Recover the amino acids of this structure.
């Protein structure tokens, strides 16, 4: 894990920020209870490169698509745990995630999108998911720093599921934003501090699949550009130096954003508030575009999933690394480089397999076809000529 993780809390007075874990409260029967503030994790990691003034010059963020644990993946994780001596009730998702690990370690921060709530046995699949807490410790073990939690499945298990999910993320020391256990927690700025950089994450989902949220603050909902821009500006006031938008929106199994989705991305880019914009939900890869100087990733596809619907699109995805840079303390952070790596999920067992280079986890023909297909989609709006580059490890 990137152990320099700190989350910034609500300012106690103008200009004063206190450091606290965003998800820093234990669950309470009263959803309006004020969360407690645990101490941040200690750090033994080496310091990042910094300027003469002690400020870092570069900061990189990895973002990945939906972590969507269908029942077939739970069965696979149970089998993996049993092979290691588990008792039949244990889960091991590390083989599923192993391919992601070197890319996570090649970035300063890594965020997933946790599609479904944490539950208790027996776990459930579509249409109302619950999944084991073990997925979070396995994500942490390969280096993830946190997850966004605003999705169309956030309230699949009601308020109890929201609390259980955030408790589990907190127990793992992982950053979370998008759903909340109390009004006070919802009002805290969604700021992640890593390597001395205050990084704001503005998340929202287009829908909760028709299920009601308990209160209007429980989940970040709505894809209204004006509201998202207001939230981005508020994060900057609260100390965010870099602000990104993480939006759950789009049409499933598509290869192009909807008109409204592209309009939203461009409006957020034109606002000047967001330094980077990315989206998930479609379970398929969508194009990447540089608009008005700001990169927009319209669809990351799945990170891990095993849909019953048979289409190659839901087995493909991309991971993206945005490197932010500034020349001196007075400069704003800007994306200096955007890199991408495509993957395909193998059939059985399901594992994450990059397709830039030949590997043992996919037939060569499948990998080549996936790469060609994904390249065409990603480059539909001219991303390659605008500077999008391949993310290949040394």
């Amino acid at each position: 894990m990137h152990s320099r993780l700190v989350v910034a809390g609500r300012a106690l007075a103008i200009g004063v920020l206190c450091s606290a874990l965003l998800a820093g409260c234990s669950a309470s029967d009263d959803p309006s209870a004020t969360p407690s503030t645990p101490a941040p994790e200690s750090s033994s990691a080496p310091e990042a490169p910094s300027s003469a003034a002690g400020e870092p010059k570069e900061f990189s963020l990895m973002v990945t698509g939906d972590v969507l644990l269908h029942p077939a993946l739970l069965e696979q994780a149970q089998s993996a745990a049993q092979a290691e001596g588990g008792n039949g009730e244990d889960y091991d998702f590390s083989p599923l995630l192993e391919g992601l690990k070197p890319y996570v370690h090649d970035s300063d921060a890594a965020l997933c999108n946790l599609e479904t709530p944490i539950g208790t046995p027996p776990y459930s699949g579509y249409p109302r998911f619950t999944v084991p807490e073990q997925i979070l410790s396995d994500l942490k073990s390969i280096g993830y720093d946190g997850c966004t939690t605003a999705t169309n499945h956030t309230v699949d298990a009601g308020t109890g599921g929201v609390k259980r999910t955030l408790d589990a993320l907190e127990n793992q020391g992982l950053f979370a934003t998008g759903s909340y256990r109390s009004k006070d927690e919802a009002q805290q700025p969604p700021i992640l501090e890593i390597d001395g950089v205050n990084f704001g994450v503005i998340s929202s989902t287009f829908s909760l699949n028709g299920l009601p949220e308990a209160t209007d603050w429980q989940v970040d909902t709505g894809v209204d550009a004006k509201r998202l821009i207001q939230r981005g500006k508020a994060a900057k006031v609260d100390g965010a130096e870099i602000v990104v938008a993480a939006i759950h929106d789009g049409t499933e199994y598509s290869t192009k954003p909807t008109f409204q989705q592209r309009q939203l991305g461009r409006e957020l880019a034109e606002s000047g508030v967001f330094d980077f914009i990315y989206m998930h939900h479609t379970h398929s890869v969508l194009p990447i575009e540089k608009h008005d100087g700001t990169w927009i990733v319209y669809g990351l596809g799945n990170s891990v999933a095993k849909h019953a619907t048979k289409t190659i699109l839901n087995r493909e995805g991309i991971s993206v690394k945005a490197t932010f840079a500034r020349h001196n303390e007075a400069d704003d952070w800007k994306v200096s480089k955007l890199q991408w790596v495509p993957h395909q999920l193998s059939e059985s067992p399901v594992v994450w397999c990059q397709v830039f280079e030949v590997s043992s986890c996919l037939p060569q023909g499948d990998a080549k076809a996936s790469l060609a297909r994904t390249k065409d989609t990603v480059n539909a709006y001219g991303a390659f000529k605008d500077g999008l580059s391949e993310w290949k490890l040394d």
Notes: The CA atoms of residues 284 and 391 lie 19 Å apart. The first strand starts at residue 6 and ends at 8. Residues 3-52 have pLDDT under 50 and may be disordered.
